[in-house]
Amino acid sequence: MQKLLVILFLSLFFNCAAQQDSSLLLWYRQPAANWNEALPVGNGRLGAMVFGGVETEHLQLNEESLWAGKHIDVNNKDAAAHLKEIQQLLLADSNAKAFNLSQKYLLATPPKFRSYQPLGDLYIDFGQQRSVRNYSRKLDLTTGIHTTTYTTENGSITREVFSSAPDNCLVIRIASTQKKGLTCKVTLTRERDATITATQDRLSMNGQIIDVPDSLNGPGGPDMKFHTLVKARATGGRLQATGNVLYITDADAIVLYLTAATDYVFSKLDLDRTIRPEDTCKQIINSISKHSYEAVRSRHLAEYQKLFNRVSFRLGSDTAFRQPTNLRLERVKAGAPDNSLMTLYFQYGRYLLLSSSRWPGRLPANLQGIWNEHYTAPWNSDYHTNINLQMNYWPVHVTNLSEMAEPLYNFINNYRVPGRVTAQKMYGSSGWTLHHTTDIFGKTGLMEGVQWGSSPLSAAWLCTHLWEQYLFTNDTAFLRNKAYPVMKEAAQFIQGFLIKDQQGRLVSAPSMSPENSFKAADGSVHQLTYAPAIDVEIIRALYEACIEGGKITGESKAFIDALEKTVAALPPVQVSKRYGIVQEWIADYEEAEPGHRHISQLIGLYPFSLITPKTPVLFEAAKKTIERRLQAGGGHTGWSRAWIINFFARLLDGEKAYENMVLLLQKSTFSNLFDNHPPFQIDGNFGATAGMAEMLLQSQNGELLLLPALPKAWPDGSIKGLCARGGFVLDVAWNAGTLTTCRIYSKKGNSCMVRYGAKTAILNIKPGATIQLNTALNEVK
Ligand code: FUC
């Protein structure tokens, strides 16, 4: 009897464990028919979209620094001479004239930059396969490994693909249950600028981007150098290199290691002709070749799982995950609920962040993370800094991946150097600035066009991320050495940039509310203006951070006083008399596009925390703002919908947050769960991941809010490992819509105020200690 019970227990346990695993699978019963069905792997810099074809496996490859273009000074040399005139025109409501002058004298020369490019494609061609059955391909988020399996008359085939951070390589293993069951040809291709050769057990691609000069994008020439190296290892069978192909015949198993490098130098934001990317590749491949596949795989697992496993998220116990992911998405589109698809989407967001932003000292996740198949990508797959790059990092702290933000901080720090030149040359100010978009070559001028690019406070917005890192970790060394000096310089730029308007208020000019247009009294439509609400909110958020941070790091009283004086002289964020919404511009203009995707005047609601229940007038106006945007068709891009989820979470409206999460899945999600802007853009994935966390835990303004926006559709669940400002890590569980337990681990020993509905508790948890609370917020010993 006892034995029976043990067996029963064990089988139950393993069943549960198996179920637990499969709830974190993206899986399909057929190969990807196009790029948006393929599945991404990445180690932060080296990525692949895996198609999982039976006769031909295709991996579309990326290396994060492979960009067309180069470092050039694009600042318009006439800017400073015309700035005052443009500013005065704006203050006098001569917006059209100011626009025309800005287009001539502020716009960067050349105004555009080139694109992030694909590295190439790897094909493994197995020839005709007969009697194929039991096909599946899956990406297991618990391992970061993509697996394709099927059975043919030559046995059962298993292919594993992952991108290893510790070994700096893409790894592919193909195995057959039948001895000598594998025969294939391996090729590496790139449409342009590369030559491929096969020698012994290796394929190498040597390349240099040749840019064609043009007046919009600037000088051309032989630009970035790059190299890709593949090494094959076959167990049993033969390996033969001919021309540019590797032939493998009658093998039992095959392992391929692939790596790539460029001559881009991150700290210089430029190319370095002394770097030989082929040497970097050889070094990496030679070092990984010393190890067995099993050792490489275990090292990958250990490193990956240490990060990924920090957070677990369950919503009830539905079994929808047993169905292929594409069918589940179809069902959701048809109106069926699928909570575990939401938890999968959440964990996928964490996976994507881990896979596109992992390496200290390298580049942050761009508009497509690192995954891009186009030579001229949508928006160049660039760094948009008027919402998109920021949104990529919204989930980073709360979902317990703070280290993944390091590439962003590195980027911000490096951009300070060209940003100082722009501050000086364009605006005659000290400090540093950049505008709404940039490539990897330090272009901080006003890019693309005045109607999109006039966002000179983008550096200030980015700098609030440095402060967030401090708020979550309380790491004073980070604040002192890495954050505060950069934040301060962004504030110094603002100090020099603001001008007085007729009423004596300090205003930013020229500027805009990102990408939106307003109608002036005479009906004419404009973008360019001064002191839009977003600027006032950015300045407030950055200055409050600088004032608090300055006090911690020993800033002079004079500087802190100057910042306080500026804040006091800013125009207020107002409520529109027309519609009761948060007023987007300095005057109560009519919006030209009421359903616009950007909802910039609510930046104070999220990601900042200036609009809260403690500012009830603005809080109510924020609700009306979203309502009005949605009624006019807002939320039509993935990232905009994701932002709306965060807004509703901050408005403590779980039902609306959930409704928009459903809409995101229904309207803006591909079958590989990539966000569909359209086209693919990764910010929606990251924004919605942050949004779901925000529904369950918030920690702004000195309070920990438990389940602040829990929707009825999530009656039972638990989330473990979320981080809160102040150095806390929380596990929260609920049942029938009510909190059951909450465990709080304190890293720093800060006291905190916990709030659940109307209940509050003030806690003093020792550093390194954990306490458990019940539904009444009483401590359970
Ligand atoms: C901003 C948005 C667009 C797009 C682009 C990359 O300009 O307004 O929707 O996301 O960035």
Structure description:
This protein has 781 residues and is of the alpha+beta class. It is 33% helix and 25% strand. It has 18 helices and 35 strands. It has a nine-stranded antiparallel sheet with strand order 1-6-7-8-9-16-13-12-11, covered by helices on one side. It has a seven-stranded antiparallel sheet with strand order 2-3-4-5-10-15-14. Bound molecules: alpha-L-fucopyranose (FUC). Alpha-L-fucopyranose binds next to loops.
Features:
781 residues; alpha+beta; nine-stranded antiparallel β-sheet; seven-stranded antiparallel β-sheet; 35 strands; globular; binds alpha-L-fucopyranose
Query: Could you tell me the number of beta strands?
Result: 35
Amino-to-carboxy terminus distance: 36 Å
Give the percentage of residues in beta strands. Answer: 15-25%
Bound molecules: alpha-L-fucopyranose
Biggest sheet statistics: 9 strands, antiparallel
Derived structural class: alpha+beta
Strand order of the largest sheet: 1-6-7-8-9-16-13-12-11
Annotation field: number of helices = 18
Poorly predicted parts: 4-20
> Which term fits the overall shape?
globular
Radius of gyration over C-alpha positions, nearest whole angstrom: 27 Å
What's the average pLDDT? 96
Helicity level: 25-40%
